[in-house]
Amino acid sequence: MKTPPYNLQEEKMVLDPEKIKKDFPILNRKIHGKPLVYLDNAATTQKPLAVIEAIHHYYLNENSNIHRGVHTLSEQATLAYEGAREKIRAFIGAKETSEIIFVRGATEGINLIAQTYGRKFIGSGDEIVISTLEHHSNIVPWQILCEQVGAKLRVIPINDKGELLIEDLKKIINAKTKLMGITHVSNALGTIVPLKEIIKIAHEQNIPVVVDGAQAIPHLKVNVQELDADFYLFSGHKVYGPTGIGVVYGKKNFLEIMPPYQGGGDMISSVTFEKTEYNILPFKFEAGTPHIAGAIGLGVALDYLKTLDLEKVALYENELLSYALEKSSEMADLQIIGQSVDRAGVISFNLAQLHAHDVGTVLDRHGIAIRAGHHCAMPLMKRLGLEATCRVSFAVYNTKEDVDSLFKALQKTLEVLG
Ligand code: PLP
Questions:
Q1: Pocket around ligand 1: residues whose beta carbon is below 6 Å from it?
Q2: What angle do CA 166, 172, 173 make, to 5 degrees?
């Protein structure tokens, strides 16, 4: 049997976008006869061959259930799954692997925290603070919790550029504030939130902070200990990994006092009809058979990013962003939505008076995939006085040629629809 292709060499590569592109087989596709230009990375990223091969290898050679087996396959699958957990710990700078919980994605991660920490420690009259920039995944679970326990949601406002108003945050938090849920990077505008400062303000009032890192992990070097985040979560599929797998990081002292999320196999240490003792961390939060291949694939995706070097990736993506912003400033009919000084990977815009969906549909005929709509951020759209925007979001395999193709196609779109 071949050695599992689960551990990519840690040799740092020179960041060569054309070479990187070749690592992603799907990017060879043609759409409507045109080469695919994939600019919908904030929705999901494409997967490098290394990730696809790791999943393939796992199902071909090691498929088995984990933790409980005494046979070879189970041991190998367990090693690979737990190895992935360790890779994630190292990638986000957590102290212990027991602080890394596998979930289905960012959405499930937030629901987990709301229904465990929230149900236990937040009660009637308490307040939860979120921001105007949040994705629905970081709004609705808190609203459900508020309905269940009689708490109230408070919202940090933004300015017209799409930046959080930190002075207002200081006025919003008070003795009733029991938790803050905040995005690290806005999926709709790309705004990078000054997280360290916000967490410090919250901690001065003993308020725990849950960070939605879904859009940050692919673009920024994240260290949860340096940030002092109490919880940090993200989805695997937005960082070159498979769908159906994600991560909740939680400080051990919080995870230990939280009740389990779901009941079932693997999350117990003993069960009688009278009483169940729960398993140790992190297994207490992982009921049932997890997405083993997904966790392994995510581990390899993070290895892949490490070989590229996240700092270089961030610099490169910034260069792409500046290039695209410069091009958009040359197009009179294009209105950029969101002008945050600190931004990552995303440009939201509207073209003349055209509906975003029409623009997206015409671009697709040119082989260009972008997002059009409210980006699961309807309250943010309302604040901006919009129903929808077009959104271009970058990944490490995008190139300046992709940006050129986009602007050529936008010009054609104007000619056709404008
Ligand atoms: N949070 C942010 C900022 C997002 O952009 C998304 C997805 O777009 C999510 C949460 C939800 O991620 P998932 O659908 O993978 O659970």
A1: 42, 105-107, 135, 137-138, 183, 187, 212, 214-215, 235, 376
A2: 100
pLDDT in tens, 219-259: 999 999 999 999 999 999 999 999 999 999 999 999 999 99
CA distance 301 to 19: 17
What pLDDT does 358 receive? 97
Site to probe by mutation for ligand 1, drawn from 41, 44, 102, 107 as the one with most ligand atoms within 8 Å of Cβ, is 107
pLDDT on residue 14: 61
Mean pLDDT of the chain: 96
Tokens representing residue 143 in the block: 């609203």
Residue minimizing CA distance to atom 7 of ligand 1: 43
Q: Using alpha carbons, select from 133, 188, 191 the residue that is nearest to residue 373.
A: 188
Tell me the CA–centroid distance for residue 382 and ligand 1, in Å. 19
> Both tokens of residue 159?
């300015």
Domain spans of the chain?
17-43+309-417, 56-306
Instruction: Tell me the C-alpha distance between 188 and 346, whole Å.
Output: 7
pLDDT in tens, 116-174: 999 999 999 999 999 999 999 999 999 999 999 999 999 999 999 999 999 999 999 99
Assess if CATH 3.90.1150.10 describes domain 17-43+309-417.
yes
What is the C-alpha end-to-end distance of the chain, expressed in Å? 59
390 included as an active-site residue: no
Q: Which of 41, 113, 135, 346 to mutate to test the pocket of ligand 1 (most atoms within 8 A of CB)?
A: 135
- Residue 365, judged by CB atoms within 10 A of its CB (0-12, 13-18, 19+), counts as middle
Domain 56-306 adopts which CATH fold? Answer: Aspartate Aminotransferase; domain 2 (3.40.640)
pTM beyond 0.70: the answer is yes
Digit-coded pLDDT (tens) for 268-320: 999 999 999 999 999 999 999 999 999 999 999 999 999 998 899 999 999 99
Using DSSP, state whether 108 is helix, strand or coil: helix
